[in-house]
Write a structure and sequence with these properties.
Elements: H1 13-37, H2 57-80, H3 86-105, H4 109-132
Helix pairs in contact: 1-2, 3-4
Length: 151
């Protein structure tokens, strides 16, 4: 959490995935405590970045607190592989643009849902590829290799 809103530099795979585990655990505890406070007893393991009036207070708070740190570590992770972190935003906006166009031209709700699912699956696979690939050896234009730097 030292670099929670730092977009410059590189993040190792372990830094990224430990941060994701931290987010999932915080979200899981929060959702279950919020559900328990509302009289619902169940165990959910989730990682959800949503916001809106239909979401629980915990989900809204979690999203507000952790969206920027998530994007920062995702950006640094992409940069570790040599890809500009700004491409994340391009991919997100492209997905939203595709969703908007498909919504306007789709003849039925089912067509829209299938197209959105395909776009989101493509985006998820792109993010997965960017986060699991190995670091570029040695320094790159984003900084030194985090696996080769001694603290």
């Amino acid at each position: 959490m030292r670099k929670f809103i730092e977009y410059d530099g590189r993040a190792s795979r372990s830094e990224f995935w430990y941060f994701m585990l931290f987010l999932a655990l915080v979200q899981t505890v929060g959702v279950n405590v919020a559900n328990w406070a509302n009289g619902h007893v169940s165990l959910h393991f989730v990682l959800n970045l949503n916001i809106g009036p239909s979401e629980s207070w915990w989900t809204n708070l979690f999203t507000i607190l952790f969206t920027l740190p998530f994007l920062a570590v995702l950006s640094r992770r992409c940069q570790d592989g040599g890809t500009a972190g700004s491409r994340i935003l391009v991919a997100l906006f492209a997905t939203l643009a595709v969703a908007t166009v498909v919504l306007k031209i789709s003849p039925t709700q089912d067509t829209y849902l299938y197209a959105i699912r395909a776009a989101l699956l493509t985006l998820a696979l792109l993010f997965l590829w960017a986060t699991v690939r190995k670091s570029q050896p040695g320094p790159n234009r984003y900084g030194p290799n985090p696996n080769e730097v001694t603290p």
